[in-house]
Design goal:
Blueprint (H helix, E strand, L loop, with lengths): L8 H14 L3 H32 L5 H15 L5 H32 L3 H7 L9
Helix pairs in contact: 1-2, 2-4, 3-4, 4-5
Length: about 130
């Protein structure tokens, strides 16, 4: 495969000097630079994907948070919740909503990185969506 690129004369000169110092053709130097860049870009991509997956899978809420949340939900459903408890439930719901927004933003970034639709990432990670719960 052949690719033609335009580079600054100063960069061309440095590449030619490097090739001469190593006793190889300039094409070999350019190929080596591109291979190194490609490997580094792939490693960075894998690190980014790992970081995003950790963020998506880590809710940050403790077991006691979830116990309290479900208890307050039950009280609300049974209509035995008082005003203080209702305010706490609203506060907790807001916290969960913010966390889910961040989780979805991370899933969108992961979808961009993988070059797939976000719905596919959500399906792969078994994250329920509206109408698919």
């Amino acid at each position: 495969m052949s690719i033609t690129i335009e580079i600054r004369p100063t960069l061309e000169q440095r590449l030619r000097e490097k090739a001469k110092d190593r006793g190889v053709d300039i094409d070999d130097i350019i190929e080596q630079v591109l291979e190194n860049w490609s490997e580094n870009a792939q490693e960075e991509s894998q690190e980014t994907e790992t970081s995003l997956l950790k963020k998506i899978n880590h809710t940050g809420f403790s077991q006691s948070f979830w116990s309290e949340y479900h208890s307050l939900i039950r009280k609300r459903q049974e209509e035995t919740i008082d005003e203080t408890e209702l305010n706490r439930l609203i506060e907790m719901s807001d916290m969960l909503e913010k966390a889910n927004v961040q989780r979805l933003q991370n899933a969108i970034e992961l979808a961009k990185l993988r070059q797939v639709p976000v719905q596919e990432v959500l399906r792969q990670l078994q994250i329920p969506t509206l109408g698919n719960e």
